[in-house]
## 1
Amino acid sequence: MAMQAVGAAQASGADYADARVVRDDSESLTVRNQEMEGIDRSVSEGVGIRVLVGGYWGFAATARGEEAEIARTAQQAVEIARAAARLPREPVSLTFTEPVTGQWQSPMREDPFDVSLEEKVALLMEATRRMQAVKGLAFAEGSIDLFRRHEWFASSEGSAIEQTIVHSGAGIEATAIAEGEMQRRSFPNSFRGHIAAAGWEHISALGLVEEAGRTATEAVELLSAKECPSEVTVLVLDSGQVELQIHESIGHAIELDRVLGMEEAYAGSSFLTPDDRGKLRYASDLVSVTADATLTGGLGTFGWDDEGVPAQRVPIIVDGVFENFLSSRETAGAIGQTSTGAMRADGWQNLPLIRMTNVSIEPREGTLADLIGDTKDGIYMATNQSWSIDDKRVNFQFGCEIAWRIKDGRLTQMYRNPNYTGTTTEFWRSCDAVGGREDWTLWGTPNCGKGQPGQVARVGHGASPARFRGVQVGVR
Amino acid sequence: MPGVLGPDEVRAVAQAALGLPGADGVEVLLMHEWGGLTRFASSSIHQSTWREDTAVRVRVVKGGRIGVAATNDFAPEGTRGAARNALEMAEVAAPDPFFPGLAPPMPIPERAGFDEATATATPELRAEGVAALVSACARGFEAAGAFETVAMETAVANTEGQFCWTASSQASLTTVVTGGDGGSGFAEVFAAGIGDIDPEAVGRRAAGRARASQKPRDLPPDRYTVVLQPSAVSTPVGFLAWIGFGGRGLIEGRSCLAGKEGLRVAAPAVSVFDDANSPLTLGIPFDFEGVPRQRVDLIRDGVFVGAVYDMRTAKQAGKQSTGHALPAPNPEGPFPLNLFLAPGDATLEDMIASTERGLLVTRFHYSNVVHPVESTLTGMTRDGTFLIEGGEVKQPVKNLRFTQSILEALANTTMVGRDTELASEFFFSASRVPALKVEGFNFTGRSNH
């Protein structure tokens, strides 16, 4: 069908065409206080056809698979491209990529879609039962999310690719409520837990039941904890918060379409410019960041991106110096580079955009305990609760679920409602410790929004705990 | 070109699921959407798309247990398959003690929200609109944005005999103009019909703001009197939909308005309501479980007077559904999608003239909740922030970060604009709101642009 769509587009006048036939399956379960909140499955299938005509893009998509409908949709894509020429611009040219025929499948040991619903429900029931056993807890919630994408890609350059990618994740969340106050603790991470490119074995190993009691206890304890003080201090972040710090203040900033103004009107642009490559000191020399679409288990892992460009490992920041953008075949050419293979689309019905792959901080040395033990006075924050950053990815503010005062290398006073703020390069330049491989986790961010019409991507971030100096915390 | 399938064809698709053997009840939500979006940046079209999709979402009830399955296969066999899938899910679910049953047959008010010209708008028509918008930009300035035309059919059918169907359309044009020596300007417009959009006027408005916001100066974060344009007011109002007005959050004590029914939560000049049937918004006349949408007063003259409910939360609260269900399964609970902040009698000029020192804010960016019970948000200003001194707009300032309780801001509102706009919010649906003047708005940080 993908090849048929490419042929139809060429017959309609496309100079270049690619097509993606996609079937997305998903399953989601949510249990709250041992009651079923939601249990649903969905499937979505269709074809998206992207064309270049005279150097202008067009894209059209349909859920109907009949031959005539595909031909009509291809014709529509061509007409859209011709209409775009109403406003003249430099014609789009694509950097070279070797045409490829191949298959790729994300590795897993146990297909999560084959696991019985009874087993899934039982896991969440037991986790929420254990949380509810903690006195004072209002809500105990557990969730499982499964995704499977089967995609066929074909291009007029001769590529023919089939990929199957499975993402599995689960998490628990404990909520305690008192007069005028609500506190939440999550495990292993907030916003529905830890999702990875893996099978049921990933969910089985998370330890949801084992961690349920501690998670709930901390939520209740937070109700009576002191407010996080307002001060400038040393800040230690757990790897889950470093994940989102990377996502918002590095991952989005290095998307070359933002840098070139292509996202200006919606999610914004970037403070970076093409000239910053190899020159800008983005972070301290302890910080190296890599975008690696070949990492086993990452939500940004694949065989080829949605332009047929092979998965790559790309150095983004090397010893603190900015080196590379995430790019596409179109945008890379605009700065004299080749694509870093970062184009992905949300389903069949959207055109590919530059999306993060697995944008990760490279581990250095030591455990989280070592970082805390090496800190005389400061604050340790864990688990993201909220995020906000400006339209050029400069000024940010994050909230976390929990914090503790560090005194002489030990966690002491617990704080509720912790948050911190800063500006991107100043913050990353203040990093004076990055944890080692022992506490490095390849997290998944399942809800990254971008583009118009809006698209949601699942992306990966490997992160260690890290320490920063001179950070404003307790913003009120 | 695709077009409206109509109630008869949609009902036939639903019927394939409603006949599912072994179920106590079945509900089918059907949606059919098509349209195009022409996206532009650097004053040229760089991403232009068109798509048609369908969605069938089947909720099956068996012994008080609920399962949901969805497909975009709009054929009867696809719908039957989704129903079987939902039944399988229901059979392993625990019974829902608050399941209220499916919606009984109820009349649905007529709503004229479909425009054929919008449903059949061509890429050439949208490109002409973008060209007109771009033409309003002076030399040295560039426009980015999106011109979208979409049409949709929505229907709900269930085994209780309820069937409702409607067709609707929406056209929207949004732009940010940048250039010169820093600064940027924003404008947007929403309408049910493309004929109600004047692209050149949208371009002129954004370009004017971009010119006015050149060479912004640094301003220290502090508490300032603010005059919020409607495009900024949509942020606090939109977030209240999420953390305040939903019946579920109130029942569970998670809402910032929990325990405040009948109490003053805002200045007397502030009234907020939800009304999907108003011609001043883009709504459909029933919710996603087939209940007619009602106008609901939420804050009246500063007093919190009501919330929105779906059938499940209404049963819990001992009330009637107000027709605000989201598609099942729905852990968020009911949600107001068509909010209004009622107009006052002030002009924007009145607000500025009465401000000795303050800020005029065009809009907020990427806001998020800091403390839901206190209704505290943080976010950045964007696309035109201006210092007001001595009752006049003096000069543009660089973007500032706010950390501010919504309810405190509404309590500190001293003037409400007489003109309203349908204004978007990054995460939520558009609200129809006026400009507001608010005292002591808390800015806690600043950016470099």
## 2
Amino acid sequence: MSACCRPPSRRSRRPGRRAQAQTLVAVVLGTLLVSGCGATTGGKSHSSPRAVVRASLATSTETSAGSWAAVPMGHLDQPLNTFWQLLFRRPGDSRWTDEASALAVATNGGLLLAAGGGKSLAVGIRATNSLEYSPVIVTSDARSWSPAGPVAALADEPSAFEKTGGGQALALVREGRSAQVLESTKALANWRTVTTETALASSRAARACGLTSLTAVGFAAGRWLIGASCRREGVVGLFDESGGAWHLVGPRLPRSVSRLSADVLGLQTTTSGLCALVGLTGRLGAGLVVTCTNHTRLSWRVSPVIALAGPETTVGFGPVAGTGVFAWISGPTHPESLAILNEPDMTWKYLPLPPPRTSTLVFGPAGRVDALVVDDTLLTDWRLVANSRRWARGQELRVAIQFGSSS
Amino acid sequence: MPGMSSGLSTNNPVIVSAFRSLLWHEALITVVILALLMLAWNALRAVQLRRAVAGELSPGDSAQPEAAARRLLRVAFGLIWIFDGLLQAQASMPLGMTDQVVKPAAATSPLWVQHIVNAGVTIWSNHPVTVPASAVWIQLGVGVWLIVAPRGYWSRFAGLASGLWGIVVWIFGESFGGVFAPALTWAFGAPGAVLFYCLAGMLIALPERMWSSPRPGRVIVGGTGLFFLAMAVLQAWPGRGFWQGQLGHGAVPGTLTAMVRQMSATPQPAFISSLLTSFAAFDAAHGWGVNLFLVLALSAIGLSLVSGRSAVARVGVIAGVVFCLADWVLVEDFGFFGGVGTDPNSMIPMCLIFVAGYLAMTRVPAIVESPTSVIGSGGAGQSYWARITSRPAHLFRSLAAVGAIGITLVGVVPMAAASVNQNADPIIAQAIDGSPSSVNIPAPPFRLVDQRGAVVSLESLRGKAVALVFLDPVCVSDCPLIAQELLQADGLLGAASRRVAIVAVVANPIYRARAYLLAFDSQEGLERLGNWHFLTGSALELTRIWNAFGIQVGFAPGGAMVAHSDISYVIDPEGRARYILNDSPGPGSQASRSSFALVLANELRSVLKDS
């Protein structure tokens, strides 16, 4: 008897109403589970986000040959179409020239300038795209350039590369998640490891600060200093090595900001010593101080605190010839301010805001102040009129950028 | 010039031309197969005629008629496979399929799905001519096979083949139909069109006697009903963006609106595009109402299909067909426009499944009692040879099925070979850089220092085939990719690499110190090659060599890297240049790197063989 002719069983006559219902429930539950997995959640974080203060890579410096500025140009929203220009101006000259082609390497990652108060300028070119190490190139007159030894990928910090007039150099490099400090003792030819982030973090000094990352290298009072971000409130992460051990050598912060964590954002050599730009963040707010020491011994003086508003702040930082340093504060929601720190008495003096789209500020000799404004491939130099609160439009420089050449 | 290269465009003429050429060649093979089958038909008909004259032929086939539901599935899905096969033959398929179809489909799925799909993407990308052409023939073959084989094992195997190929397409082409992606919804085609092909194939592969009962029909219709109900729950689930036509005060379109807008941007006739644009605008304005309608309609259709009653199910089937067709037009945008459409999307196959289920439930074939008929066998008590030599119809169907299998194999065999070949085809390198120039001229001599400080000259490399390239150690784009191609080429050479020297000359007038060569070697892992020499010298020496080999090196303005020609030479063991290659790495994909490496390795082997 074939299956079709068999008398239907009781079960087959009532084809499983209960089974159907069970299946239905299972399918619905399964679907609920699947839809729960796929649903987007709209959960909100109840903790207020900590403010972010970072230093700008667009820096400037002075050598005896003239003024130098690193300026990002091109399509600034596209990393591989952002080309950093190295601008140079001879003393007494009012016009900038573009030296980027002399570097002979793509500059998408940024340029780190190391003058160290000397005659020559060393330029570290940050690794980008498929290049995984940083070329270094040196000039003393902006006419002839010679490559120095390559160094591992320089960190994304404005003070990741520094040298002295005597030819010593220090580099903060990052390979993957690991940061290292490298030293070159002669002509930037060979590099040796001074310490690693991991090794330094295990030291007693670093534990005292709650070290989170290395951020800067500098030179003061005859010794190398390493800047860092510290988790512990009120501690400025400035380290030096003596007697085979690392020591915290930073200043004590004023009581008003001792409940904030400090990040050393940059170290700047000045005519009288070294200044550190310190970002302060915490639940109670955010601020900025500069602390300076002289050439002979580490003796820190701390500037008044500049309070910061808004979740994100970028600080341009650089030397002011004969005076101290400047701090140019900007942020998406923060009103900009430009202040000069007068190093002898550690007081801030505020200057008029630079024009919109200013990328780099240059405080040159004889009190000259330039704001380099970028609009794609056009650079415009605005000069602060002496004894005035007005910026005057000056030179325009159109840069020939080969878009797409790094991709 | 480094960095000036563009990726392969979807309609790259070299690839498109090679794809069409291969399709014509394979078409010729199918013609040969069909010609052979016609000869076989002729010969077997002669046997039939002889047996007829001798009075040996048995009465006609009185087997059970094929169930209407099975016939619908077989013929309709056969036609759909043929249609899909023709879509696969579109010119933009070889290079557009992975980038425009597969990768976007997988992008929202979990990583493990992307890893699986990536295996298929790699095979397709490495063999952008062979694999797409194979897909055409497999789908045409399966489609024809389903149509020409109505009964017996030929037919059931056709269903099985349809199901198996469907699984392959569902996993690698549709990323599991997006069932693991967060925006899973019936309206966009969940759980993937090809899953319905698989289901149809499996139903066709069932023993034919199963169709003589309404039970398969009930299962299909009930299962479809449950599927609709599940999809209704999913559609109603909050937080997935379906209840809103627009999000954030109109700044962001809701999920359905965004999907329809995206589909309306597909290249297609203007009236279809405007239809979709209008529906997107309607959904943007009435998102909540549209989704409520979707949920209610899915629920109502689902409930009517699970009811188990023919009359109620009939209403559900009709409503389902109308609803699916509306979604097919207004949301899925027919599925096959835009140059990379691979199928008519999910609604038509879904409709066919539940309509076939309804037919199976309500139109059970009448039993034909015959002493000689056994359902599904096409004849009893006779050997296969006796059957095909006694019945013209049986003979025709068998030969047609063999022909369809032949067409399928025209696709399956090259695809299987491509799947196990991990090297990309040379056609990719040719599409990027053109074919290598074959020459036979003395190579300009050079004498430089390598990265280890050893003096290396062309003379010192006599007896070895030389791959000579020009690399900038601080190049950020092309040179690292070329270095990877050199590494792969060395690996492909195997033992022959002992007779090959891979030589690069610095192509940057500034960064030519050995420290930079060593840094580049370390970055690219070239230091592990024993036959690798990265040469440098004074600026004067280098300039002389660049000029001798026709390499242009120049400072680029605006902070770009130094520009240099991407040209390499293959020099034979006697020191004669035999091939000149443009070695621009193009998009620098894994496939393009592998392809160039294969071209270089083949040419090095060729000069070794000639010497």
## 3
Amino acid sequence: MDYEFLNVLWFILIAILWTGYLVLEGFDFGVGMLLPILGKKEKERRLIINTIGPLWDGNEVWLLTAGGATFAAFPEWYASMFSGFYIPLLIILISLIIRGISFEYRSKIESVTWKKWCDTGIIVGSWVTSVLWGVAFANLVRGVEMDANHQFTGGFFALLSPFALLGGVVTLLLFLQHGAVFLALKTDGEIRAKATALAAKFSLGSIAAAGVWAIWGQLAYGKGWTWAPVLIAAGSLVAVYLTNRKGKEGWAFVFSALAILAAVVFIFGSLFPNVMPASNNADYSLTIMNASSTPYTLKVMSWVAVFLVPVVLGYQAWTIWVFRKRIKVEHIPEPIGLESLSVPKGTFGA
Amino acid sequence: MESLDIARWQFAITTVYHFFYVPLTIGLAPLVAIMQTMWVRTNDERWLKLTKFFGKLLLINFAIGVVTGIVQEFQFGMNWSEYSRFVGDVFGAPLAMEALAAFFVESTFLGLWIFGWDKLNKKVHLATIWLVAGATTLSAYFILAANSFMQHPVGAVYNPETGRAEMESIWAVLTNNTVLAAFPHTITAAWLTAGTFVAGIAGWWMVREKRRGNAEIATGVYRRGFRLGLWVMVIAGVGLFISGDAQAKLMFEQQPMKMAAAEAICETPDGGTPFSLLAIGDFSNDCENVNHVLSVPGVTSFLAKGDFNYQLSGINDLQAQYAEKYGQFDENGKEINYVPDLTMTYWSFRLMIGWAAFSAALALAGLWLTRKGRTPDNKWLGVLGIIAIPTPFLASSFGWIFTEMGRQPWVVAPNPNGIADIRMLTADGVTTVQGAGVVLGSLTVFTIVYTFLTFIWARLIWRYMAHGAPATVFDESPEANPDRENDPDAPLSFAY
């Protein structure tokens, strides 16, 4: 099979967009999951939320871009995957909606009940999506049942194989680690120490779970060269543990990000040249060639991406730099919300 | 119900909800940017009070617009996979461009704006809100360009081998004359929405403070906001009228059936087509029962062609033409009805115009009442301000219901002067691999979640509106607080 340059380029670009998404939103999923574990008092919870307050929305756009780019570059993939993975995606969407609105509305009202509900939204939304992304990607690696028209024919429960569920555990632990390392890097004081201690545990968990999953995936679906990302991921995870123990938080974060990057390379590497393999009949698989847009569309989108992705990276990096300062509980100012959702009596009289 | 109907309901419900918040964001972001610019330029802290007040309302609204927007990017693949396969080569590009060029800017710079008051230099901080405002507007352009391809496909060819539309020119897609008309119409509608929102709230507060004896605040703070909102409404009203006229003229050419349905004109008249002011009867796609009670002769022809006597085809003639051109029967041998739902099309068109004209007319009254430095204190003016706020939202919703329902039965309406094969019936676009039960579950969950969120949103907006502008504000910028930089323990000036 001959591959066109543009099709390979777009396969790589989609992988880059997913990497951006999982590395960036990965830490704010982790932070969301750790909210009840590290934040016992209200000010601690506010501290935790404020580490990602200015960033989470920009991080989430990587997902929309990955979705939009898949639509534009590989419409068949977009159509088959999104219609096939219907129920998991539905749960992801609802979780992201509840989680996002909880982040933004939490500070608006100073009532215990209100905050409790918003915290629940953040926590549940973060846990559920963290698991489901792993399940979804593991299913891509494993392949799904499709017919000759590339229509998904498996049911919802076919998506819950042991390999896929273990994939969910892997992303869960990776994001917990990533979030803990991020909090250790961004905070100071008691939370920082606790986050460092947790990061050590999660990194050991990640090494175990990701190790089993990656070797299973590599043996069953990998190629010779995909041993490289597997080994890089393993080395990075060990490095997270070691650098974290030495208190080198910046490096621990870099290695944690590198592990996620290597995982995406492994996933996409084992897929190539398929974008969505058919487990029942290899001829039915969607590939970078039969799923793609026309060369003209790919060319147009290449120019757009090559020009804009670096710009996006530039201003997002600048944003992270603007909010680079470590924060601690003492930095958290008085609450900004109104005392209750009810309008005080007499407001509309007179 | 079949999957098709459920999927249509879901698209309608999620999109109408989403587009409840979006116009307010698109219009309010530049208004807040103008308020902040006035503060930076004049150092008058009354402008800062307005910026903070409406900025907070903008954020409450922005958040819900963002989270409901995620669904839109996924929904095409989930519920409309066959549509996605057919148009993906063309339709995906503007969506991806929107994310890359606009959505990233909005989200990232909004974060900088919210949390950056004490971290960014005053002018840089001001630039962030302008970037947000610009990006929300740009975002609308890409989405409307995508939608315009569904109304009037251009810039693409049909590949008989794959049975798909393929893009031939991105330039043609992005400069589709349909989007060139729809964009100013949508943006001015957003300005009308935000102008009414600002004028309504500031007007209510102006009256209230005046009656409480706080003439200084009434005049100095709220009257300014009131007048700013009113002027935006007037400008938006004029823009809506001009762009709407241009859009209607195009639509008479591009989708004559939609416009015939909007007038419920069944038989082609002998001379010019009247503009129907009121029609009664059972419209359920039965021309026989439509009874035009009140019409202005020739006006519809004038709107379409600038000629009162121009002959426009009625629904029955158009149905015959469409059947001849695009086939009389579908694959199952059923006759294809090319007529959109008459009740919805006729009434949504009128409600769009009516609600928008109502709020624009109120703006003129408001400007008259506050002419030459007057600060009115009539209680009913304040109440009217609050009542007026929902009207442009209703106009926008009805406008989209008209645009989308009037396009039926097509999801991609054929371009009468383009490639006839680039067309798709809505029924052919729906996902086939999921059963009706799953789609119904999705519809139910989204309806419950969106309704609940909208309830929370409305209460928060109401609560913060009733709270009013902050009594005291101060300049949080780093240049105004040089000491803070040297104090590592200084609290953040703002945190969630």
